[in-house]
Each structure stands twice: as C-alpha cells, then as structure tokens.
Amino acid sequence: MPAKKGAAPVQEDHADKKKEVEETKESKSNKENHHPIASTKSDTAKPKRPASAYNLFVSSKRAEVKAQNPDLGPKDMIKHIAGLWKNASEAEKQKFKTLHEQEKAKLEAAQKAAEDPKPAKRKDASQDEEEKDTKKRKAEIGKKKTVK
C-alpha cells in the first residue's frame, strides 16, 4: 500500500512518543510529592497502636509453632496459630487481653505526655533574687502611694 502524502514515517511517530513518555517520567520525578498521602515527620512521631490480644498471642506462639513445624509456610503457620487461638481457653485468652490493656494504658500515658506542654525551665538562683527584689520595690512604692 502506498504511503499517503504528508504522512510522517512510522519510525518518527514512535520516536516522538518515546520522547513524550520520557518527558512525563522526568516531570513526575521532579515533583516534590509523588504520592498525595505523603508521610510527614508528625506522622512518624506518633506512637503505634497497641497490639491486639490476638496479635500478642500470635507473636508469642510463632517461634513455638515454627520449631514444631519447620516446613510450614507463613500463610499456613498463621492458619495453624489462628486455630490455636480459636481453641484456646478463655483464661489463656484473658492473659493476652490483659497484656493488651496494659499496652493500651502505656500508649495513652505516652500520648498525654506528648500533648502536655513542656514544663517551664527552672530559674537560676540569681533570677529568683532579682524577682524578689523587684517585688519588694513594687510593694514599697505601693505603700508610699497609699501613705500620701
């Protein structure tokens, strides 16, 4: 089939598309924030949530199950541990629920401490003396005004 008049060769079209793709890649890489939900310093400073009772159970049983069944993959290991949790007595579950509550209390205390403003700096002894002298002078001036 003969080529149309004024039509660009196919190879040139591909080269133009490649240039466009490269330019868009460069412009995207030059942007400050690639992702709309970028993590900030304040996000990383926040303490993590406390582990749930189930997660605490899993972390305590993982090594034991791995030792008994070294051929289990991660997915099968979690299935096995989930079965152990399901069949665990209420007393055993309560032990992990108590641990969860303790972690939760620690986290809340840490959050409160982070929210409270820092205590004022302790003053030097010389600053304390200066303040006392100033208060005395003001009191004396006040007495002189009331006496007149």
- Strand elements, count: 0
What is the fourth-level CATH superfamily of the domain at 49-114? Answer: High mobility group box domain
Q: What is the H/E string?
A: HHHHHH
Q: What is the fold-level CATH name, i.e. the topology of the domain at 49-114?
A: DNA Binding (I), subunit A
CATH-defined architecture of the domain at 49-114: Orthogonal Bundle
Instruction: Please state the structural category.
Output: mainly alpha
Fraction of helical residues:
over 70%
Continuous helix count:
6
Biggest sheet layout: none
Shape: flat
Low-confidence stretches: none
CATH class call of the domain at 49-114? Mainly Alpha
How large is the share of residues in beta strands?
A: under 5%
Q: What distance separates the N and C termini?
A: 117 Å
Q: Round the Cα radius of gyration to an integer and report it.
A: 35 Å
The mean pLDDT is 75
Please give a handful of descriptors for the protein shown.
DNA Binding (I), subunit A, DNA binding, 148 residues, flat, mainly alpha, 6 helices, HMG_box_dom_sf, HMG_box_dom, DNA-binding, nucleus
